[in-house]
Specification:
- The chain is built from 5 helices and 11 strands; from the N terminus they run βββαβαβαβββαβαββ.
- With about 220 residues, it is an alpha+beta fold.
- A 4-stranded mixed sheet has the order 1-5-6-10. A 3-stranded antiparallel sheet has the order 2-3-4. The chain has a two-stranded antiparallel sheet with strand order 7-8.
Length: about 220
């Protein structure tokens, strides 16, 4: 299924790709002391009480290093991973974002590549719930539906960095500091952008394609 995101016949160079995962995450310590964050698919064959054994995670789970590799194969201009799971070991790079004070800032970040990731919390942190969702997803939906994460409401756009800052503040406060979202970049100086629909400006909703593997169609 992940390979479909690398299909240049289905994804264009000017597309944006949003990948959302909600489930269990685990941080595994490797023999050299490094930590790797893993997403645990529903059919993973692992003993969650035995995080000291990396073999089972490597064989049947999805490491953040795999997501970083995948982000490089996706032909889209901007890619954002939203991960409602808690662990460390994001495998991200230290890439400074462009200054928001730049002239035509939004045009600048919209024209550049971005490979960004936001996760629900850190290693071993409890996950809190609100309104039938994890609190991370609940606050995420608020941000996207109502634009409350937009630092500059007059521009009608929420950047992934603004979204990450909002989620960090809201989730950390809601959990009294027990659950702390993380964010980072796999690559690029651009930003994944969410444009808020305006009844005065937009007569139609944006076109959103749900990408599924060909074999599932």
């Amino acid at each position: 299924a992940m390979g479909e995101f690398a299909n240049t016949k289905r994804i264009d160079k000017n597309d944006r790709v949003l990948i959302f995962f909600s489930g269990h995450g685990q941080t595994v310590t490797l023999p050299n002391g490094d930590e790797v964050g893993y997403l645990i698919p529903h059919d993973a064959d692992v003993d969650l009480n035995d995080a000291a054994n990396p073999a089972q995670y490597y064989q049947t789970c999805l490491g953040m290093n795999r997501l970083r590799e995948l982000s490089g194969f996706i032909p889209a201009k901007q890619v954002l991973f939203l991960v409602d799971a808690c662990y460390s070991g994001l495998a991200t790079r230290s890439i400074p974002s462009l200054s928001t004070g730049l002239p035509n800032y939004l045009a600048q970040v919209a024209s550049r590549i971005a490979r960004q990731v936001i996760t629900a919390g850190g290693r071993g942190e409890p996950v809190f719930e609100e309104r039938g969702h994890g609190v991370f997803t609940s606050k995420l939906l608020d941000a996207l539906e109502h634009g409350v994460a937009d630092v500059h409401p007059t521009d009608g756009v929420t950047t992934a960095s603004e979204l990450a800052a909002y989620l960090k503040g809201m989730v950390t406060a809601y959990s009294d500091g027990k659950q702390n979202p993380h964010d980072g970049r796999f690559d690029g100086e651009g930003e994944f952008l969410f444009q808020h629909r305006s009844p005065e400006r937009d007569t139609e909703r944006p076109i959103i394609t749900i990408l599924e593997p060909e074999r599932l169609r």
